């Protein structure tokens, strides 16, 4: 994998969190995007090479709503950038990691993404992502 691309943070109130993280990072949010298939609203901040992704639920059935119910606000996933997401999904699946979906899908921020279950990564939800060119 190439680098840690972003850290995803689950929040209850996206606008309040954007305001707070803009102040914390001293940089504005550069993108807000809804991912309808996942029922999430996202907001991104960029530092030098890494990003912070804030995630809020857009429906009570959203995976983020379920996460917030179980855990409250906080770190939701780590995302690693890869060059060939299909090959990386195959590699990880054959090494015993558990993909959460059959195939990579279109996520936020112009990325193909795939998630791996925290049970195979010591409690951390792992995303891998590839820029769509
Ligand atoms: Co992410």
Q: Strands, helices and their partners?
A:
Layout: E1 3-10, H1 14-25, E2 31-35, E3 40-46, E4 51-57, H2 63-71, E5 74-81, H3 85-94, E6 105-106, E7 111-116, E8 126-131
Parallel strand pairs: 1-4, 5-8
Antiparallel strand pairs: 1-5, 2-3, 3-4, 6-7, 7-8
Bound molecules: cobalt (II) ion.
Cobalt (II) ion binds at residues 6, 8, 53, 77, 79, 127.
What can you see in these coordinates?
The chain has 133 residues and is an alpha+beta fold. The chain has a single domain (3-131), classed as 2,3-Dihydroxybiphenyl 1,2-Dioxygenase, domain 1 (Roll), CATH 3.10.180. Helix content is 23%, strand content 37%. It contains three helices and eight strands, in the order βαβββαβαβββ. It has helices at 14-25, 63-71, 85-94; strands at residues 3-10, 31-35, 40-46, 51-57, 74-81, 105-106, 111-116, 126-131. An eight-stranded mixed beta sheet has the order 2-3-4-1-5-8-7-6. The longest helix is centred in the N-terminal third of the chain and has 12 residues, at 14-25. The two termini are 18 Å apart. The mean pLDDT is 97. Bound molecules: cobalt (II) ion. Residues 6, 8, 53, 77, 79, 127 line the site of cobalt (II) ion (CO).
H-E string: EHEEEHEHEEE
Q: What about the largest sheet? A: 8 strands, mixed
- What's the arrangement of strands in the largest beta sheet? 2-3-4-1-5-8-7-6
| CATH level 4 superfamily | 2,3-Dihydroxybiphenyl 1,2-Dioxygenase, domain 1
Q: What is the helical fraction, as a range of percent?
A: 10-25%
Quaternary state of the chains:
single chain
Into how many domains do the coordinates divide?
1
What shape does the CA trace take? globular
Low-confidence stretches: none
> CATH topology, what is it called?
2,3-Dihydroxybiphenyl 1,2-Dioxygenase, domain 1
- Radius of gyration, rounded? 14 Å
* CATH class category: Alpha Beta
Please indicate the percent range of residues in DSSP E strands (runs of 2 or more).
35-45%
Distance between the termini: 18 Å
How many distinct helices?
A: 3
Which molecules are bound in this entry? Answer: cobalt (II) ion
Question: What number is the mean pLDDT?
Answer: 97
Assigned CATH architecture: Roll
Count the E strands: 8
Which structural category fits the helices and strands? alpha+beta
């Amino acid at each position: 994998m190439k680098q840690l691309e972003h850290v995803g943070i689950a929040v209850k109130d996206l606008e309040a969190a954007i305001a707070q993280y803009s102040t914390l990072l001293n940089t504005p949010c550069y993108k807000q995007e809804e991912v309808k298939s996942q029922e999430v609203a996202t907001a991104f901040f960029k530092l030098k090479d890494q990003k912070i992704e804030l995630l809020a639920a857009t429906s009570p059935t959203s995976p983020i709503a379920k996460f917030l119910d179980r855990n409250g606000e906080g770190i939701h996933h780590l995302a690693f950038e890869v060059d060939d997401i299909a090959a990386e999904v195959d590699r990880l699946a054959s090494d015993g990691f558990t993909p959460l979906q059959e195939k990579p899908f279109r996520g936020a921020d112009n990325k193909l993404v795939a998630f791996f279950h925290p049970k195979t990564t010591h409690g951390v939800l792992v995303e891998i992502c590839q820029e769509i060119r």
